[in-house]
Amino acid sequence: MNSVQRVRIEYSKKGPIRYIGHLDLMHTFFRALKRANLPVSYTQGFNPRIKCSFSPALPLGFASEAEYIELYLDKKIDISSSTGNLQKELPEGLTVRDMEKLPLFGKSNNVKIKTVTYRINLQQFFGKSTVPGQASKEDIEVKIRNFLDKEEILLINKKGRRINVRPLILSIEMEKDWNIRLLLKVRGGFNFNPRIIIKTLLGVEEKDLAFVEFTREKFLF
Amino acid sequence: MEKTVLDDILPFVSKPGRYMGNEWNVVHKDWESAQVKVVLCYPDIYELGMSNLGLQILYSIINQRQDSLAERVYAPGLDVEEILKDREIPLFSLESKKPLKDFDIIGFTLQHELSYTNVLNILNLANIPLRSRNRNGKFPLIIAGGPSVSNPEPLADFIDAFVLGDGEEVIEEIIETYKKWSSRLQSAFRNKGNGFLKALAKIPGVYVPSLYEVNYKEDGTIQRMERKEDGIPERIDKRVVDLETSHYPLAPLVPLIDISQNRLNLEIQRGCPHSCRFCQSQAVYGPCRVRPKKRLLEIAKVSLKSTGYDEMSLTSLSSTDYPGIEELIGEFLACFGKNHTSISLPSLRPDKFSLALAIQIQKIRKTGLTFAPETGSERLRKLIGKKISDEEFTSTISQAYNAGWRLVKLYFMIGLPTEEEEDIEAIIELVKELKKRHKNLNFNITIAPFVPKPHTSFQLLPMEKLTELRRKKDYLSRRLPAQVKGHIVESSFLEAVFSRGDRRLGMVLEKAWEMGCKFDQWKEHFRFPVWQEAFSKCSIDPDFYVYRKRDSEEILPWSHLEFWGHPNSRDTILNSRMA
Description:
Mean pLDDT of chain A: 89
Mean pLDDT of chain B: 91
Largest interface: A-B, 30 and 26 residues
Oligomer: heterodimer
Structural class of chain B: alpha/beta
CATH superfamily of the largest domain in chain B: tm_1862 like domain
Radius of gyration of chain A: 20 Å
């Protein structure tokens, strides 16, 4: 069957479900779509799959305020009732924030993403951290300034490649309530894990990051 | 969202998805208003435990009752175990995050003998004394069911009551009995007392080991198995339910992370119409009963809707023997195929009929093909009761090749009774012949040592010596033109000890656990030298249980437990001839 409609679902991911990885999350959504009885389109061929596109993978443990799924449909749907139907079928922590129609043809919005903002909350980290020299906001601000003054910041990404991330960092700011706001460039859907950046910035070990709360706030197109 | 003990643990854990208890269709019942609180435990990792159908059935039955609740726990990973110990957090259930100690009943499923150390480890992590006699009425009642209960004696000191056979009905009877006694259990004496245990022992299918006493002869074999109380049965018969009416979960739990059997599990048949002499499943799951087609269609319709699964497996010990399986599959495909739902069958009998079904199913989605010819020679196959000729097997494989399969999984056993070198050669010749016919056909081959199991025709026979098994396995791995996966022969040896052993093994089990053994089923955790040390520290010779040919008059550790089917007289003769 040919698809007759394309929709974009915006959802947030909060609470314990942020420990569900990208692939598992996709399956969780596929099952929810099936339970909600949405007329999703399938790809042709031997192994038919649901025709859809997810926004760039969210690292394990990150909360998010706005993630996207673009979905092709075999039948036109009523947006408002479908939103409710889908929400009923989603596990706790996944919330549909919006559903909108997209033009049937054309590139996925997900490849048009230019920047992404993260909120990194350090409150718990300071409550529990035993790392010396991380006592005040001023300490952090100095660290941020020194970090941004560098022309080159070489970090190893997940695939083990060394990358200069400095050009990717648009800004890092210390804000109220122990929040750091990080603005990152996204290139061709490629999205560097901010954990690695924050770990280097603070000069701490991976295990010290356990109580740092990462939230993806929004994508800018 | 409410903060729980989890929030402080999850950030440090390698697989946090295992511990969240937020699966789709999870049941959260009010703790205070439930009179009987049961926690079901699969003593291995989440990914295996969540795939188990038995626990899904019990979870559903118990939670359907007004007066009870069921929650779950699995063996925590080593990283979580360390955190729990470090922070002195007792092991808790996934749903309410309550310590296991706060439940009324803990129900273990014993899927295989190598999970026994995990049972002890879980009790310990829950701050519950391991041995029944050290637990008073303050502690939960500890029960266990599952296939390994076919000989539960090695766990007799740790488990209060074993449940033999199908659990659907007996679990409710246990809950009822518990309810009647619970006020008295909490009385001033806080002692479980024999009255309660005796009441349990009177439920058909329930075996309370502490009410039976075993005496041994000087040669180490059993002299007598005696009842300590009047009014309890001398022999315990396993429970058998009617599959036409028995409960089946319509909203099974759907995990949010990937597990080993991540699909809708539709049990179409229980038991097996074949009677392979080596196979214990017939005794454990028999007699062969079918779930009616109409009922299966109803279950599938409702539970596909409630789960959102796009694949369902028609499971049983031998699904292609389901009467009218072709019509069943045809109707399933007609009903659900258009909704992009695929159907899979577990391991197939290597015959043409089964393959034809696999081809029919494949129309929707390509599934793997697995056959268990068990052995290479027709003579041996006949002897073990697997009635498939070489001709039928090879032509089935050819047909699979012609239908487009390029990878086939095969299971073989080594160390079968009367096995000669030529039988081992026959495996190689069989596979070579197939490779010659079909150059592009590849095989994944698993080789497992034969373990003579209780309640089978071969129960009296010794297991083949480790050195021989090792040699045969290595030889096959070298010579077979295929990817070969071999079981660790030492772990099969341990499996044999515990499946054929008696109560005295409880000591060894506890010792091995103290010395750090757990997750013995896992290659990376299995430490045979430690086990050997544990045996020697307890002055128990494992060979006694494994290599000794038993006399047909001998009282076996499981002689008082009645499973399905009896090794018949012809087989007794077989046993003596094959010694």
